[in-house]
Amino acid sequence: MNLFVILFSLATLLQEGDPVRFSANFDSGSLGRVDLIDSVWVRPSRTDSVLHLSYEIISRSDPANPANPDLMPSGRWFYFLMDNVKGKHIYLTFKNTDPKRAVYSYDGINFERFPHYQASMRKISALFEQDSVYVAYFVPYGWERLQERLADWTATEYVTMDTLGTSMMGFPIQMLTITDSSVPACEKNTIWLHARVHPSESPANWQLEGLLDRLTEDSDVAREYRRKGIFYVVPFTNPDGVYGGYSRSNARGINQEINWDHHDSITSVEVDALRRRMDSLSKDRPFDLVLNMHAQSDDKISYYIPTEEATTTEYHERAMRLAYLTTDSNPYFFPEDMFYSAPAPRYVEGWLWNRTAGNTLAVTIEMPYSFYNNNPGNEWVTLASLKENGVYMLRAVSDYFGWNIPGRYLVQGLERKNKTVYRYAELPAGEYHVFTWDNAWVLHGTYVRERPGAFRYVIRSQDTHKRPYNGPLRVSMQ
After folding, report:
1. Is the pTM higher than 0.90?
2. Is residue 186 pLDDT above 50, yes or no?
3. How many domains would you assign to the chain?
């Protein structure tokens, strides 16, 4: 007993003389209250002793919501720095959020996920190798990183940037316009994308980064994307929330996601700026597609598909087609992963539905933090796979609009009695796979061109009493 008292006293003196320090005063940092629960020396061998320190963490909650006072503030996000931790075994118990997806970094740039045996629904237990370590709910995507990437993306003539307005804290709400200006706007589809309505949902920005990297690259495919579409992209719709390290609100406490139909007196300045710019850009012609990019606690990717009952059969089928195109040949996303909902006017989808009567397809897509398809046995979420999903989504948008992209051609056919004839003016020489569409691209056959020339492909009905397949054909170079 006396030995225990001596060791406990030594631990207390060490904690007082060289304490572990917690801080979160940096971009996207967030921390509520920290209480030291216990400290004790553990002697694993005669020549070695390790100080074990146990802390209770209460993550910081968002401010009370003045627009929706019945909505409980969220405290999901945490991101803090601990100093003086080297050689000490640190136990962190989280009271109002879960660290099962938590990550750590010794430099604030390169993050690693805690192994599953070190992180659970409420606890982190780790022995750190360096004196300072950052701990976060997921890999942060802060204001500083966005500015670095914006400099990369705007370094080309086909990307311009302006601001929709300023946030309550004075941050610019930045928007990229990406297109080939040599092609008339009337010949292109218009696509609006925005992310980070909820600041804790950093996976959405990693997905968007993958999409933007592909869209702005110097390649034949990217050039054709820019010839076919005008992309309006708002990476941070809630810059105050991101920089301030909030979970689901802006600095005023407003959840911007459900603020679209509110009276002016309780509409956030950010939502007001978004609505005004969207109105201005779609004054003469509605957007063809609006994508609202989020992340969710469910361990899967999901679109929120507007139901047929709440919209129309045609609108629902368009949304399902985009969703299925995004799952096609995607190892992370599957048709059974969808959610279904009605486009209520407090959401951007409902606001647009009321304004365009369905002319604009508007859907939310959600990325997970942990793993895909509710399957923890498969690959967990990484930055690389999130960026891949941005590329898959851009490819799905292209197929949805029927764009012909180098190496990937979408061909419509002409039905004649018991056959459908597909023609395309010019294909490069090469070997091609030919796909039909049945809620996924289904391989139908192969096609070989020994030299450049016209494409012709015939699909006949196997039953003289049934119409032949007459949907789109995808012709992709092998």
Report:
1. yes
2. yes
3. 3
